[in-house]
Specification:
Chain lengths: 518, 368
Amino acid sequence: MSETPAIELRGISKSFGPVHANRDIDLVVKKGSIHGIIGENGAGKSTLMSILYGFYHADDGDILVNGEKVTIADSKAAIGMGIGMVHQHFMLVDNFTVLENVVLGAEDSAMLAGGLDRARIELKRLEEEYELRVDPDALIQDLPVGLQQRVEILKALYRSAEVLILDEPTGVLTPPEADHLFKILEVLKNEGKTILLITHKLREIMAATDSVSVMRRGEMVATRETRNTSMEELAELMVGRSVLLRVDKKPAVPAEPVMQVENLSVTDQRGVQVVKDVSFSVRAGEIVGIAGVSGNGQSELLETLSGIRRATGGTLRINGQTIDLGTSTLDAADMRAKSMGHVPEDRHRMGLINSFSEYENSILGYHRDPAYSSGLLMNISAIKENAVAEIEKYDIRPPNPMLKTASFSGGNQQKIVLAREIERDPDVLLVGQPTRGVDIGAIEFIHSRLVELRDAGKGILLVSVELDEIRALADRILVMFDGRIVGERGANADEGELGLLMAGVEDNAKMSVEGDAR
Amino acid sequence: MSTGQLPRWVDYGLIPFVNLAAAFLVSGLVVVLIGENPLEAVRILIWGSLGYGEGIGFTLFYATNFIFTGLAVAVAFHAGLFNIGGEGQAYIGGLGVTFACLALDHIVPWYVTLPFAIIGSALMGAAWAFIPAWLQATRGSHVVITTIMFNFIASSLMVYLLNSALKKPGSMQPETRTFEAGGRLPFLNEVFPSFGFGYAPVNLSLFVALAACVLIWLLIWRTKLGFEIRSFGANATAAVYAGISPVRTIVITMLISGGLAGMMAINEIMGSQHRLLIDFVAGYGFVGIAVALMGRAHPVGIVLAAILFGMLYQGGAELSFEMPNITRDMIIVIQGLVILFAGALEHMFRPAITRLFTPSRAHAAEEA
């Protein structure tokens, strides 16, 4: 017989009310391997890992660690069994040093100083053993995200984790940083650690794992040796049917510019200049993609153009009208009136009011439209009628306009926002992260809607941190780094080249970023 | 956050009832501790407030005050603002009623004076809410702090005015002259003698209060402004995204809120006292917070909660009369318990009841 697996799950089930998040899950993770778990959002990956890490308790089933049946009461118990977790959102104290963060929660005595000294020695050893170099005295807030993630891994190793769970670890990383992470994982594996990599990105599974389990709707549908499978097979297993990994679209036929931005600068509330002298244009009938690692000024750019945030300088020409953004007092309603739609990056925080019903959200921002009011009162039946039409057209499920938007899945919530913004027929549509947290089926739908809008002769500015998405959708790609546009590329730009630009490597062939560049 | 899975009757009926039952249970224990029979106390309380015409009249009179102040707090709630300045806004609202009545009472009948009194009280109450609103909207000074401060300013200002400009000449009392017939709202006992409201001061302003409920319901759930107020209250970031101006929303909402609080003075001044006097608000502004909390910031809930608090006021007075051991202060303890259970501890029974009604969702709380 083969050796005892590091982790074995037998018949794990977990329900949240009527929803089976996990149903009868079996999983065997071999010691010293990198095991991927892939599935769409909401497939139950995170729930399963939360059960393993002691956040949730399974309704049914057994967990075996090193062949022994265990009960994991909480995350402390999980750590005690040598299970460590690197969360998607880092659990670090920004204004503590690396060393302090590593020790936090694992201090070995009441007095900090002695413990810190011992920890420093241990950290040094770990750094050398696993080639995870970080300055122990650097403040977390001064480190780039890639290094912050390294600190998270060190934290787990410091607590002598044998099994490391990484939940969507590359979401915040540039492609080179992600590659580096995979190298680190390889080293960890060679040192005998077991790694569980949770992701919805097929490429990462193919690049980094030894074996992969696919989850769909709370069930484990297949486990494969990575070398014996393909992206196509995994994608099909994930959604239960074959999917279009590329967007089917004709070449763009751009016309006149509908939106021109010149010398836009934005300073945020901390007084830091986050958008630096940015100029570009979007023509009717094209999708301009802005690629970049999140936090390089894209969010602020979108918010400024849509009238939510104030600029310190710059002009915006939209539909022939020129607006001085440095002095403009136009708010989001005024910008909508200039035929600019906006699908915000964060639908929960900004795009929807989750305690409101679907039909109320379907007019958010357009509630002053005379079509939805009769005199002083809102015309509720007209609003509902419109909502029902949008639900039908965008296949929003469940098809109930009375339901609170909080009760819709991520993909359907995004469709609600998209329907609202597209159906007002804007000349310019600003789109931020259109498919973040959205399942593959909805991604296809959203992408084809955007291409349709483009083909109808509208200008689209697309901001996404998913390079694949930018490459699939955009007709021109602008790369933002540190508040500037550092390069422009055509639709079929080389991925590696874009990755370098996103990482801030200077672009030698920097072109003019006027609308006609090609 | 979302509790949308519960049936409405549970959310709006059962949970408040359970909270109320718990409040009365604890109150009952207190009554037992001081050596009285709690069942007898409940009987007296209910009989005293609902058992005979005059008792009902008093209950409704108090309820009228609570509807106004409760609505005031509720409107602000919907915009995510906590207006606890109802006390001061109502007090200053009294000036508006008084100006209208002093100016018109000897020239025109009450039904001509009434619209002026309504407008006057609402304007004065709104004006008193304006400065806190403006400071919140433009400077970020929290309305909870500023409205409280304005309660004190209102109190001192009114004492000053009632001791100087407004005082009846030659009187030692800090109050205005008594209004003539044109400044007095008819008592309901005069309008509907068959109900036997007796000497209860319940008057026509009850109908003004009910009309305000309908208008506020329309405003909040049926107008664009209401949509904007609710949007801003539920998610200010999304509201800005939707082009809703925070400054405008905060100021307008607080003006409406202050106006409603000010209108409470119609009931007290034009309906009952027929003169402006010191401290006529007597805490109704603060109890309005509890009324709004218990009534879930919905006009129907507010009417029910206002009647409940009216019963506590009237039945409580009766109780302290019938059971001398139960003093006026004890009644305030009971009111406090109701506020505690209905407002502050609102979420105490909710998880259990939620589990009861969604049996398969046993771990819903964990998920959230």
